[in-house]
Amino acid sequence: MSEAGGGRSYFLGKLIRYSLTLFLILSLNFALPRMMPGDPVVNLLGDEALHNDPEMIEKLRAEFGLDRPLHIQYTDYLRSVSRLDLGYSIHKSRSVADLMAYRLFWTLVLVFPSIVIGALLALLLGALAGFKSQSRTDLMLTGLALFLYTCPPFLLAMVLVSVFAFHLGLFPLGNLTSGGRTGVEYIADVAWHLLLPVATLSLLGASYKFLVVRNSVVQLLEEQFVLAARAKGLREMEILLGHVIRNVLPPFISMVALSFGFMVSGALIVEIVFSLNGMGTLVYDAVVARDYPVMQGCFLVLTVSVLAANLIADILYGIADPRIGRTS
Amino acid sequence: MIWYDRGQILYKVSPLRLAGWLILIFFLLLALLAPFIAPQDPCKTGAPYLPPSSDHLLGTNDIGQDILSELIYASRVSLAIGLLAGFMSIVIGVAVGLLAGYFRGWVEELLLAIGDLVLLVPGLPLMIILAAYLSPSMWNIILVVGLLWWCSTARVVHSRVLQLRNMPFVEAARALGCSDRYIILRHILVNAKEIVYAKFALAVASAMLTEASLSFLGLGDPLNISWGEMIHFAFSRGGFANDMWWWYLPPGLLICTSVLGFVLISMEPKSRGKFLEL
After folding, report:
1. pLDDT digit string (tens) for A206-248?
2. Is B132 within 8 Å of A307 when comparing Cβ atoms?
């Protein structure tokens, strides 16, 4: 296989894989309300639909095409999804797409800085702990990371709110802004409100990556090429930065990309504790009210964003490391 | 000293693992002996929202139940869900890993592709939607968590099987005319068992954390209260807003400790407290 062809088939393979996942997710989203226990009308419209009289329910059934054969329902469904028509929430009397429009933005505002900060934190501290393995710094950092890894997201968020916002009064208890501000002041206010949630999510994301980086650095330091570098008279810092970290980076980057789904899951929970108006609070309200259209819409949108982020990361990774996908 | 020197031990139990086992034995006793340890009946109601006192060491909740007793009984639910969901995910993961690694070819391609697909989808939103459609019960939570947490086990077992399948003793067994089933069960599975045990402990830890998040969102079993669900009630019924830390902090710390126990026993004894790929 030629080298360029190897690269192309790598991207093609990725593209096929992601399209297949997207197709499966869409099908799952179509199938769930129709095959799960309960009346599909309720599953598609939420519990509130039952408050209508039987005649109205039959009318709704016809309107949503539930009396038609499945394959026609399926093509109709795909058509409406492509128009970004994700259904209607009777509970909130608004269309699901409208409900999600700006909430997705805020969830991403929470997730992206957390991924970057968490990854940098994990890389720096993990390299430090691995480099000085068995030292007191290493023990403390590893212990802390292990504790954070075992900590459910909502617990860490609750403890941070309780200590820093409730008792010390350093940060707001929740919400995105105090309101009534514009321009730079508004952005500073939002940053102040988002500091604790971003810190929570960064710490949660960093804990697992820290453990992985630390272990790979410890392992790499035993390799022959490190011995050779030492024999060559390189300083320890040069070895760490130029030889060890360089080898940790490629798998680390793909790990960070794959953690996007985990971070979105964490963000949903963190948002609820900090009562931020993002996807998490929307999902929470929908779960409490059994508002199925909103839940399904959120699931679809979150999954598609995670897939998109992973696809972009995969493409960047393929460009950054041309060895990928080449069959040697 | 937590980290020990290389080559020092093969047979001695590492202190970290020992700590993990002690933690787990403590929780197992707590769950099994709950009726004898709990000071009161966890279902008995009384005066609500009491702060800790000599009568109620951790106060009472919104319907006046003794929080300490509820906490002790909840250990049964949390551990049972974690162990059963972990077991289910390990059975699926090991089966997929063994079949994919042993038979190769299109079986491998298909099984690994399915695993990759499940791995790509963000777990929590999918579990929320599945749990919301099913009726809220302990068994449905076990089913949802167990069905979606097997991919990393399958990958690790698969790569171990790839190492094993061309080893001389496996080839010898094949030359002797042993059936595939016999080779997989008697030779390959046996040699992968350490990975399976470690992965089982980690799967239980992940299952407990996932269950806690689902219960926190209010998708738990209302008849079998778990630690995560206690925090859900503390959060949604004023315990958190009124700073009643004795209500939400103890169940949270018990989740952390028990998960830590499972993570600790999964550590490899040979390579200096190295964490298996989590």
Report:
1. 999 999 999 899 888 888 888 898 888 888 888 888 888 888 8
2. no
Sign of CA dihedral A140, A143, A149, A152: negative
Instruction: Tell me yes or no: is domain A3-11+96-327 CATH 1.10.3720.10.
Output: yes
**Distance in Å, alpha carbon of A175 to nearest chain B alpha carbon:** 14
Domain segments of chain A: what residues?
Answer: 3-11+96-327
Q: Chain A to chain B, count of Cβ pairs less than 8 Å apart?
A: 140
Cβ distance A296 to B117 less than 8 Å, yes or no, reads: no
pTM of the model: 0.88
Q: How far is A184 from chain B (nearest CA, A)?
A: 31
Yes or no: domain B68-263 corresponds to CATH 1.10.3720.10: yes
**Domain ranges, ordered by start, for chain B:** 68-263
A155 → closest Cβ in B117, B134, B255: B255
Tens-digit pLDDT profile for residues A47-105? 777 777 778 777 777 777 777 788 888 888 888 888 888 888 877 778 888 888 889 99
For residue A258, list chain B residues with Cβ-Cβ distance below 8 A: 119
Distances in Å between the alpha carbon of B65 and those of A225, B43, B220? 63, 6, 19
